[in-house]
Design goal:
Blueprint: H1 2-22, E1 26-29, E2 32-35, E3 41-48, E4 53-60, E5 66-67, E6 74-77, E7 80-88, E8 96-97, E9 104-111, E10 121-124, E11 133-138, E12 173-180, E13 189-193, E14 205-209, E15 215-220, E16 226-227, E17 229-232, E18 235-237, E19 240-241, E20 246-252, E21 260-265, H2 268-280, H3 298-316, H4 324-334, H5 338-344, H6 346-349, H7 352-361, H8 377-381, H9 392-407, H10 420-441, E22 448-450, H11 461-468, E23 473-478, H12 484-499, E24 505-511, H13 517-524, E25 530-533, H14 536-545, E26 554-558, E27 564-569, H15 575-585
Parallel strand pairs: 12-20, 22-25, 23-24, 24-25
Antiparallel strand pairs: 1-3, 2-11, 3-4, 4-9, 5-8, 6-7, 6-10, 7-9, 10-11, 12-15, 13-14, 13-17, 16-19, 17-18, 20-21, 23-26, 26-27
Length: 586
């Protein structure tokens, strides 16, 4: 009897601990998110127990920015949905704000409990394009099922898997995207960056979206063989293309990190080799950027170039899974260090001695048959202006530099371009630019202004604006049509402008060619004030004056004497702007 009592007492004491063990919480620290279009929100921890599933989340966004989580949010796994129950640190369906000091906000969302054996799930606010959605959330180390890859995709590439030499053509190049493990409602966004040789002052950034089947096509005129860059979260695809050619990029939404699994079509094999090289061998390559700091003479440049070439060739020796052609292309790509020299040794870069070195050697890292032209190329292209150097490379450089001037409104004489196709392209683009500028200047209302370099020099842009509205309080707003905070600022400021409409204030809005002209003109109708479409140089001069780094929006307020009384980068609230205007009026 005594023994039984002892046993029962022992069980009674252990019962709470047994219950605790039965309700043990499973914790995923820093879980992996397969895909989300909201990279500024992270899930730092997932807790799964019998009572609930908790997502510990953190948002990092500009100071005092607002966000909202819907009470309709749910988790989904194996076709089943688990509704949100409550939240900590934020209210569902209400606006929450990031910290003024840290730009962060931490919060926790509690959902109905997922099955204890859950290894992967989605978090969704809903099915709208702008709703917060996180797909394929899983613990570190979890490996999902292998993705089925179409048989005709494996190892398929064209017989002529090399660039067809120097060419210029207006036939567009096309990239097809196909996503495996794609879910309806992902609304996956891909940022595109490419270089248009006829518009070298524009970064040509655009966005495309995968459809409900996980497919999308992108076409553009590149005129010349080069690489295009596509970014989706951490995924980067940089396929080589030529005018009139196309390539299919296969991506797997379930893969961690880079989701590109291969290519099909033009240069598929070379693109696969490039991906393999970047993933497996890039870390072995010698670094040379710091060596540029030691350059004192042009001879130092020549010695450095030769030593880097040898070091790269040595590093690549013995790698058999990558063709010699791909190795050569990678060396050409990595050795384009003239823009670094221009930055570190600006005075040496502009000497005649350096020009002679370039003209004498013309190393292939300067321009090859598939040059990956970047914005820094304009600096190097300037070396050939006014020279009579012959050949494709100098032709190409003079063309790019002249296009840059034409786009800025500088009327120039046609440079020496011996290549027939390139020469004809120059004539055509110049006619189109001239017609476009004349059209833009015609029919504008009195408060809409299109400015060129021939109108106002970059360094005089600010003074021009201050002088034009002398004696008035000025609020200068630097913005862009694609900038969300800029548009929010316009909307929030409208009631203030209405309240102060009888006071002596002029609102000046300036943008540049990063905003599509027609879109800009359309949007100005709903924004009262004076609007200026500046050349890139004029806009950059203002950005440099205000130390904005090119970011928008920028707000600056001047009193009637032309003295600055307020300046801010980014939009957080309308009250400081109103206070700045009232201060300027005193």
């Amino acid at each position: 009897m005594i023994v039984k009592r002892i046993v029962f007492a022992f069980i009674f004491v252990l019962l709470p601990f047994i219950c605790l063990l039965a309700q043990k919480t499973v914790v995923w620290e820093n879980p992996v998110i397969g895909y989300t279009s909201y990279n500024y929100i992270s899930i730092t921890k997932v807790e799964l127990d019998e009572a609930k599933t908790s997502l510990y989340m953190s948002i990092l966004f500009p100071s005092n920015a607002w966000f909202r989580i819907s009470s309709q949010s749910f988790l989904e796994t194996n076709g089943q949905r688990y509704a949100i129950m409550e939240s900590d640190s934020i209210e569902l369906d209400k606006e929450s704000y990031t910290s003024l000091e840290t730009w962060k906000k931490d919060f926790v969302l509690h959902f109905e409990p997922l099955p204890e054996d859950t290894k992967i799930f989605d978090f969704r606010e809903g099915f709208d394009k702008d709703s917060y959605s996180f797909f394929y959330i899983h613990p570190q180390g979890y490996r999902g099922p292998e993705s089925p890859v179409s048989v005709d995709f494996i190892e398929e590439h064209l017989e002529k898997d090399v660039f067809q030499g120097n060419m210029f053509s207006e036939q567009p190049a096309t990239v097809h995207f196909k996503a495996l493990n794609y879910k309806k409602g992902m609304n996956a966004e891909i940022e595109v960056l490419y270089f248009d040789i006829t518009n070298p002052r524009s970064s040509n950034e655009t966005k495309i979206y995968l459809d409900d089947e996980g497919c999308a096509d992108f076409s553009c005129k590149i005129y010349y063989p080069m690489r295009l860059q596509f970014t989706m979260g951490r995924t980067i695809a940089i396929p080589r293309l030529a005018p009139g050619e196309d390539v299919t990029v296969w991506i797997d939404m379930l893969r961690d990190g880079n989701k590109v699994i291969g290519y099909k079509g033009y240069l598929a094999q070379l693109n696969k080799e490039t991906d393999l090289f970047l993933a497996k061998y890039l870390g072995r390559m010698p670094k040379f950027a710091k060596l540029c700091k030691k350059i004192k003479t042009v001879d130092d440049i020549a010695v450095l170039h030769d030593s880097i070439m040898l070091a790269y060739q040595k590093s690549l020796k013995g790698i058999t899974e990558i063709s010699d052609y791909s190795k050569k292309k990678y060396i050409d790509y990595e050795l384009r260090f003239f823009s670094i020299i221009a930055e570190k040794c600006d005075s040496l870069f502009h000497t005649q001695e350096f020009r002679n070195y370039v003209f004498r050697t013309r190393p292939e890292c300067f321009y090859g048959d598939d040059v990956d032209v970047c914005l820094d190329f304009k600096d190097v292209a300037s070396l050939f202006v006014g020279t009579e150097e012959n050949g494709f490379g100098p032709d190409f450089c003079r063309f790019v530099y002249s296009m840059s001037e034409l786009r800025s409104g500088i009327a120039n004489h046609k440079p020496l371009i011996e290549d027939t196709n390139l020469s004809q392209l120059y004539d055509k683009v110049k006619r189109e630019i001239t017609e476009s500028v004349n059209k833009r200047k015609d029919g504008l209302s009195e408060n809409i202004h299109y400015m060129e370099l021939t109108d106002v020099a970059p360094e005089k842009t600010l003074q021009f604006l201050l002088d034009r509205y002398k004696g008035k309080v000025i609020m200068l707003d630097m913005w862009a049509t694609w900038c969300g905070p800029c548009l929010m600022g316009h909307q929030k400021m409208q009631p203030v402008k209405e309240e102060l409409k009888n006071l002596d204030i002029v609102y000046i809005y300036v943008t540049s060619s990063t905003s599509p002209y027609e879109k800009w003109k359309e949007m100005t109708v709903d924004i009262s004030g004076e609007h200026y479409y500046l050349s890139p140089e004029q806009f950059d001069a203002l950005a440099k004056h205000y130390n904005s780094g090119g970011s928008v929006p920028v707000y600056v307020i001047y009193n009637k004497e032309g003295e600055g009384v307020y300046q801010s980068l980014g939009f957080s609230a309308v009250e400081p702007l109103k206070a700045g205007l009232l201060k300027a009026l005193k």
